[in-house]
Amino acid sequence: MGNKQIRIGQLIAPFGPGSLYTDRHGIPHVVCGLDHWFFRWDETRGLVRCDNQTEFERVEPRLSSLLHVDRFCAPPDFRYVRRGSHAPPNAMLYVPAQRFPRWYRHTRTGEMRRFNLHTTRIDRPSDGRWQPVRFVAVCANGHLCEFPWKDWIGCTCADDGNLILTDRGGSDLTSIRIECKSCPAESPGHKGKNLSGTTTKPNMETGEQSAFQRVGITCPGDRPWLGEQANEQPCDQPLIGALINQVNLYFPRTISAITLPDLQPRSEEVVRIRNEVEADQSNTGIAKTLWNMNNRAGAVALIESGLVGRGIDAERAHIEEALESLFDPAGASLFSGVELPSDPESDLLAFRRAEFNIIRNEVNDPERVPNLRVISTSVSIDLSHWFDKVNLVERLRETRVFYGFDRLEQNNKPLDDMPDKAMRQLFRNPPIVPQERWLPAIEVFGEGIYIELNEHSLNEWQSANSEWLENRLDDGYIARLSGIFQTFPPLGMANRSWTSRYLLVHSLAHILINQLVFECGYSTASLRERLYISADNNAPMAGFLIYTAAGDSEGTLGGLVRLGRPERLELLVLRALSRASWCSADPICSEHLGGQGSRLANLAACHACILLPETSCETINQGLDRAMVVGIPETPHRGFMSRLLTNTYVQ
User: CA 511, 513, 515, 521: dihedral to nearest 10 degrees?
Assistant: First the structure.
């Protein structure tokens, strides 16, 4: 892969290992697996491991506990060696990508030729040029294969044959035809066949097979991102044709966490040591593995040697206490008055609740908590009926981890069989020893605004509009929404109380983001939402965090936080609600006709009103209905915040 073609953050999503990336020259590549990371190319020795991989290590204890992987590594940044200068540490490191698909078509003659994954240069013919084909084949197990050109037409040639691909430029696949000129004249291969039906998925309910299944073509289990001959057999999933730019070709599995402070009383020395360990995380991942193996002495000795190497003196007892506060996130105390949920919760929802319990309170101690600063601010009188809390998050650190991918459809239980599933998918030779397991991750430092809805007003709104909610949210829609794992549904049966709460909070977050981009100085793709939603009777949640999501040149200069101040937030909310109250696609958008979106999980929501770039939304734009916030043109009074717009002049 060429230098600086993909930003480091994009290697987590959407261009993680196993994804197809088209470079600046229009050549598609597959991003290589983790076996190929942290190597540089030497002309005499070939691939050489980097000088010090621990430089890229990152530690996030809560994510480690959830994913069962003790350490993470940031993708290597490219460091160029200038002529005549000394090479910096870990110089000339690439995240490699290999040529895929291998099949190319001559633009003038239609002749097909197959190259290798590692082919670096293709000579240009005297007339025309070699162009990569547009089709590959995938299966639900995550395999990525070449389109079975020969098997599809029944070609029996021993080699690649003399395949000719003809594309007449029609509107469907019947205009694309493949044939083999070296097959006997009366054979099926010589007669050829068009590609009609090859991209249609089988229907499990009716038993209808895919086009490949009907002719006996099975998935070979190819994994080109892991290199040649990295097949995984057997594979029982049907093979399906796909375009190389198809949106469901690659669904990265990512999860993120905001670094939370340790609120237990600690001595200044212990706090100092913890901050030093967090500032330089070399060997911290291995130390955590030793800690989890009950080898505390080994973990302390490893961290002590690192501190001594940096000229920092510390007693072993203090180091052990600092590691205990760092490696045991469950041991961090909570603010007083925190209510515990009455019903069991999923791991993902409990993971999110831990953040909710911290971020809804003030955290303002830069010496003890350098990576999170939350300042409580007042709520204006006009908004106090709807908003209970508004906090200014002046600093936060988010760690995002990539732990695999899906193809065709997203898995609703992505954490099952972790970390073994991720190791098998991302490594050709999966690490067996726990301290050698790692996953890609990046850290982003940013700012944000936390808003929590008034629980009493929310319950009143649900009670007053119960009949309307019952008609709008039928059982089928509730089942579809709760079937999306990113919504963190309750473990039991989802009901209208949870569904309406989720739609309200999620839609309001989108409405405010769409307005914030006009006033805060960030682009839409640079903002992200983080939802805290639960309908638990004892510990309900109805809040959201809007924060900066891109750690690049835009920086975090307070442009977002300042808009959370009372004198600015009120006008911002009014303008946002006014824009959302009418969509240019109304009445079609507001009628919704049973659901919108890929999973029919949206109601009154479209690209003309409240949808966001998919990287900004937790659920990839699913679970939205602006009617919950501002009503619809026929019944504007049904919205939770509709009354705020009544008799209000919005500039």
Answer: 180
Measured CA to CA, the distance from residue 467 to residue 490 in angstroms comes to 23
Token representation of residue 504:
């309200």
DSSP letters for 9-65: GGGTTTS-TT-EEE-TTS-EEEE--GGGTTEEEETTTEEEE-S-GGGGEE--HHHHH
Q: Which residues contact 86 (CB under 8 A, 6 or more apart)?
A: none
DSSP assignment letter at 486: G
What is the residue extent of each domain of the chain? Answer: 8-58+72-98, 99-245, 347-645
Q: Which residue has the tokens 């830069």?
A: 366
| Distance, CA of 182 to CA of 258 (rounded, Å) | 61
Q: Structure tokens of 437?
A: 């397991």
Confirm if 183 and 202 have CB atoms less than 8 A apart.
Answer: no
Q: How many CA atoms lie within 13 A of 544 on its CB side?
A: 23
Tally of CB atoms within 10 A around 105: 23
Residue 484 CB neighbours (<10 A)? 17
What is the Cα–Cα distance from 590 to 638, expressed in whole angstroms?
13
End-to-end CA distance of the chain: 50
Residue 219 tokens, joined: 């998935």
314 vs 306: CA distance, rounded Å: 11
For residue 266, the Cα-to-chain-centroid distance in whole angstroms is 35
Are 348 and 531 in contact, with CB atoms under 8 Å apart?
no
In this prediction, residue 324 carries a pLDDT of 84
Dihedral, 316, 320, 321, 322 alpha carbons, nearest 10: 100
Residue 116: both structure tokens together: 């290798």
Query: How far is CA 512 from each of CA 394, 515, 563, 568, rounded to the nearest angstrom?
Result: 18, 5, 11, 13
Query: How do strand 57-58 and strand 130-132 relate by DSSP bridges?
Result: unpaired
Distances (CA, A) of 390 to 4, 68, 511, 591: 40, 34, 16, 33
Q: Which residue has the tokens 């097949």?
A: 231
Q: Which amino acid does the sequence have at 371? A: N
**β-pair partners for 404:** none
- At residue 87, the pLDDT reads 81
DSSP structural state of residue 86: P
List the beta bridge partners of residue 57.
73
Question: What's the angle, vertex CA 497, arms to CA 455 and CA 578, rounded to 5?
Answer: 65
Q: Which helix (H) or strand (E) holds 105?
A: strand 103-106
Residues in contact with 249: Cβ distance below 8 Å, sequence separation at least 6, in sequence order: 20, 136, 138, 242, 243, 407, 408
Which pLDDT score is estimated for 553?
A: 45
**For residue 290, what are the contacts with CB-CB under 8 A and spacing of at least 6?**
296, 298, 299, 302, 435
Q: Among all chains, which residue has been given the structure tokens 């040697």?
A: 305
252's CB contacts (< 8 A; 6+ apart) are 12, 13, 14, 16, 19, 402, 404, 405
Q: What pairs with residue 167 in β-bridges?
A: 176
pLDDT at residue number 422: 95
Q: Residues 6 or more apart from 497 whose CB is under 8 A from it?
A: 462, 535
Instruction: Tell me the torsion sign for CA atoms 152, 155, 157, 160.
Output: negative
DSSP, collapsed to helix, strand or coil, labels residue 181 as coil
What's the CA dihedral at 21, 27, 31, 32 to 10 degrees?
170
Whole-structure pTM value: 0.90
Helix (H) or strand (E) holding 534: strand 527-534
List of the chain residues with pLDDT < 50: 1-2, 553-555, 649-651
Question: Position of tokens 């375009």?
Answer: 243
Tokens of 147: 């389109």
CB distance 592 to 603 below 8 Å: yes
Structure tokens at 477: 């829609």
Give the closest residue to 225 by CA, choosing from 55, 11, 26.
11
Cis peptide before 101 (omega within 30 of 0): yes
